[in-house]
Amino acid sequence: MQVNEDLQSVAPVANLEALQALVDSQRHRIVTMLMDEPLTAKEIAARLGIGRTRLYYHLDLLERHGLIRVADTRVVSGIVERTFRAVARTFRVDRALLSSQASDMQITDAQAAILDAVAHDLRARVLPGAAPPHDDVLVSRAFLKLNDTRREELRKRLAAIVDEYSRADADGTEMEIALALFSTKGSSS
Questions:
Q1: What span, in angstroms and rounded, lies between the C-alpha atoms of 141 and 139?
Q2: Strands 88-92 and 79-86, how do they pair?
């Protein structure tokens, strides 16, 4: 069974459970790999260095929440082998879509978990006893005061930059990017 290989450019994260599934660093890596090309579980397991049993748990969860799909099936030595593909190049969290299913605090907690996962990934780059990597890590934090027009302009420009660089370079280095743009109104700082 062959399915259209084209990816949507953007897909919404349909519910809080899907967002929580995507927050996990391992599952996010799987989805990212499947944005670049269709892969079998065997290929994904080899690239990530994890066992297929553990991988199938992640694949089933991602497929159940509509983040990946089966792109092809074939019989190999009497066993059905599935090839997986991400459903989109970018996933966007729409608070309005999620708000009917979850509280603002639950949504915010899930979004904050994404940033926690990014922090974990950043820390994991440095192996115990090894010299810190000296590559091009950029971490920036700024407090801005923007009117509604400029805030929306910044939001669109940031999304456009991510979209522009979302296609993998064949000779590229794997990179991770995290963006958080939010109002600090009501914060205790």
A1: 7
A2: unpaired
Per-domain residue ranges of the chain: 8-113+133-164
From residue 23, alpha-carbon distances to 18, 81, 115 in Å are: 9, 27, 9
Q: How many CA atoms lie within 13 A of 136 on its CB side?
A: 5
DSSP secondary structure of 37-100: S-EEHHHHHHHHT--HHHHHHHHHHHHHTTSEEEEEEEEETTEEEEEEEESEEEEE--HHHHHT
Quick: pLDDT tens for 120-147.
878 777 666 666 666 678 888 899 999 9
- Mean pLDDT for 3-15 is 74
CATH class in words for 8-113+133-164? mainly alpha
CB 114 within 8 A of CB 91: no
How much of the chain is in helix, strand and coil states, percent to nearest 5?
45, 15, 40
Q: Which residue has the higher pLDDT, 85 or 36?
A: 85
- Would you state the structure tokens that stand for residue 7, as one six-digit string? 């990816």
Residues in the chain, overall count: 189
Q: How far apart are the first and last CA of the chain?
A: 55
- Looking at residues 89-101, what average pLDDT do you find? 77
pTM: 0.70
User: Which residue bears the tokens 């269709």?
Assistant: 38
Assess whether pLDDT exceeds 70 at residue 188.
no
